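Page 47, continued from p. 46.
Same chain as before, 133 aa.
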Amino acid sequence: MAEAKLAPEEREAAIVRTSAVGIGANVALAAMKAFVGLASNSIAIVMDAVNNLSDALSSIITIVGTKLAHKQPDREHPLGYGRIEYLSATIISVIVLYAGVTSFVESAKKIVSPEVADYSVLTLVLVAAAVAE
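Result:
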């Protein structure tokens, strides 16, 4: 089956649109998970909120990178700005790596100095909603 090619303007619009939806969803999920995680004293849920925030930041970087990559060539960049997408991908990978290392360190701290998590009925309902995302 042949793959349909999008015009550069359509591709850019699709990337921006889907990234904007992702930003909104991830920020809302992060807020809910952070609240539940802090209320229940659960590092796992708090780290999941951090993951959602890193996803939102990645989407912002994707939008900026896409907008810059589609700039027209100029005197300083006669071949255009297309390679900015590679730089954007590298920045996103560093953010994901940082989030992973931070999660590992915080989890290790909680293993060494554990705290009892408090799961009320409301907390469990909110966690179930977050899982159903």
